[in-house]
Amino acid sequence: MTVIDRDLVRAINSGRCFALIGSGPSCEMGVPSWSQLAEIVIREIESAQRADIAEESRALLAENEYTRIFSLAKKVLGRDHLLAVVRASLAGETEQGLVYQYAASWPFSCYLTTNFDDHLIRHLETLEIPFAVRRNSQEDMRTLRADSKNLVVKIHGDPTVPEDIVLTKEQYLDFQKGKVRRYWRDKIMSVLNMVDLVIIGYSASDPDFQDQLDRAKQIASPNHPVFLFAADLEPDQVGEYYRRFNIRIIPYRNLDGTHRELRRLLQRYNPFIAKRESPALGLDPVDESVATLAASVHLFTQLRLIDTDEVCIGQVYSSLVLQVLSQLPEKRNVSINALRTALAEKTFAASNVDPAAMHKALETLHSVGYISLSPDGTAVNLESTGREAIATVKAHRDLIREKFREACRLFLKRESPALEDESVHSVIDALQTGLVRAYEKRGMEIARSVFSGDVVDVSDATDVLETINCACSMIPGDDQRRAFADLMIEVVLRPGEEMRQFLAAISQGYFACHALGLDPRCSRERLDMARAKKWILDSSILLPILARNCLNHLYAEDLLERMGSLGLRCFTTERLFDEVQEHAWWAITNFAASAPDDPNLLQAAMAGPGYKQNLFLDGFVKWSLPQGDPSFRLYLSECLGSDYEKDLGGSIRSKIEEWGVEIMSFSQWPDFSQDLWPERDEVVGEIEQLRRRYGTYRRKSQCIAEAEVVLACEVDSAAFLSQSGVLNKLIRTRPRMTMKPEAMYRFLSLFSSVPADIDLLYECMIQDFYSAGFDIVNKEVISQFVRPMVRQARMQLDQERKNYEEALGQKRFVELRDDFERVPDEQKPFYSMQFAFYVAAEETRRREAAEARARRVEEIKHLTGDERNELIHLRAKRDEKRRREEKRRRRSRSQPKRKRKKKQ
Description:
The chain has 904 residues and is of the alpha/beta class. Among the domains are: 6-31 and 94-272, Rossmann fold (3-Layer(aba) Sandwich); 32-89, no CATH class; 288-397, Arc Repressor Mutant, subunit A, CATH 1.10.10.10; 786-860. 62% of the residues lie in helices and 7% in strands. The protein is built from 41 helices and 15 strands. Strands 3-4-2-1-5-6-7 form a seven-stranded parallel β-sheet, sandwiched between helices. Strands 13-12-11-14-15 form a five-stranded parallel β-sheet, with helices on both faces.
């Protein structure tokens, strides 16, 4: 689970960001990893009948000393043979790789890569994007500048130029420290200090990794983060690199060496990234009348214009009748049959409108004077009071839209002040179009999942964001696309009150329309069927119930209350209960004794680098604001009971059972038999295979818990309420056995006389984002929580001003100090820490440079004038020799080209 780092999205969308590509994307395509390449080379050494060198190489392989293996191979096989082996390994197994597809389509201005292959270049060619290729000679490096565009630089060369490849231990040392390659190091560092950098696809075991990490440490600063997608780093390392250097690592596991999880991470970011060439939408235009109807349906149920105890499903029918009648001329009678036909069109009905529901709606509207009926009851007319009710709804709807657009405008003016008014309106129009299209689709999918017995994949968070992002296709210019991505993040993941109202209006309205249109006559029967089932609740529903004040706590409470009030029976399994307990135990183990101003607690609560979001920490932050002396232990006592430290499992069990949720072990389910144990193991294998295919496998216990749910649903009349739809993809689970909480919540709200609160509807909507890996943090709550830490950080900067100015110079200090005020409040405590480490590093660099100068002075201070002149002459002679050697290498590289031209 990874934070969507807004600074990373903004950097990429600027169109001025560099990417440094490691071996991960190539490994995904079947190019050997470093360890696999070393294995290949060792086999070549064995073929050369050098068993002693092969044995030594295998010992080095166990220590991940790949470059030393290549050094030995070069001595045994010769340079040309070694490079031929490397060249033969670069083909890969596939023509296209998803990681390269993402990296090539994102608007990076330049790519630096340590890979020897040409797969990145081929992916750019496939997209018809012209990029020039350079390697690492001094001549090549002259073309690399901070404002370079459409350039791929192979910074470690490739086998086609043997003199400049970086493969063996000696070659690495030469590029890291050798004087001959100093031009290369100086050029790389000078450029990277001036651009934003995203590093993709390195593993901690790669020989390149430490080199790139050291480079990142040198160029990162408090106001200049470096973003790094890297495999196999521990969480404490990730957190430390952020706190000390502002290196923002997005970690993933790479157990099989294929970097498959990297693909999943980039897929999560992809909806937020503006693509290089915006394609034509290829989508039908938004039907404005349908969008208006959907918003009106939601508002009608929210405003409670008809003061009755009628359930929402009845109010929706009433609002649709009013909508149809309001579009006709005044004082015109409409036959009931014509009204029924119009309603069928409005609700996208696949069958006839439910006559009982329609009759009830007409009765309700007539009783309050909104409509009149003809004496024979065959026609209806909209009265002036009804038109006034519709006008009121329209006024509220227009106000919600106006406030939404104004909130968006203010955000864009604050975050993208250079945008002209026309561009601001274009961005907002595009976002509004994308939202309407996304939630029209979402409403249809949720309704189908409620009323259909077939397998239906409810749109997950990524699909919704992709649909929204398609709407920016017609927006020209990188600045506008960057602003669009910023606004999309704000509206979907961190909306203010005005934005939440707009989202609720379109999403709930579309769901109601589609739900009524698909099969309205069966809605009551569906409710009866739901009552007959046992509903197994996933840990993702139980956790927000326990963690007071956390994300989705009130929504989860409301969901369970609605299920209970309508007679639905709730259960969970012992293994799902264990997942809940593990979540609580992690928070207790790591932070029960932490002070509220502990930076590690803040970093974990924000789901910052190195941490996944924990709902108990999330709830603690909000809970602590009104407390005089907040304590995480006291918060946990309120969530779990005062005895949680003595008996955590018993405390959690008691709290879950208070909500009427029964906890049952697998063997306690009705109709359980011993034959189910081996069958469970078989299902575990199927789920594990499925999860690995989709990149969502975490651990074996997860698959066992889900396998028990599958069999419990098969042997008993049960269904699974979960954010994960993976079990619906099993062949044996036809018809589907999993319903998403959002679908259940909206379905149940149709049978309640109390409409859902706007904030609860928003929490319901973002549940999918949370389960898909988006860590959603309440920015306002975090800002209030960190205020004491921000004051302390500001005081520390002021107190150390003199020392910092001496280390950095007054101009650089003022620049960094001003940036401190510009970063978001939640980052300020870490900015202060990074500032201190940055100053210490600068002082170290200055001291080392001074010591080097002193050594040079010491070398010559005892020399006579003739000796000093001789030393200068020898150094000049050495430098001239190096220049001639570099010129000879360039000539030898260009010679094969001249020979080919002669042959032609």
